[in-house]
Amino acid sequence: MNGFFKTLIAGYGAKKLGGGCLSTIAIFVVIYMLLGQCN
Length: 39
What we know:
Elements: H1 3-17, H2 21-37
Helix pairs in contact: 1-2
């Protein structure tokens, strides 16, 4: 998967699921790593 699209998907998911600043960053990192594992 392209890194740009992986970042967009992770950012969108983090924005939808995250409440505060720290939780949004944590969710972004988790989704980004999970998408990286799917390769």
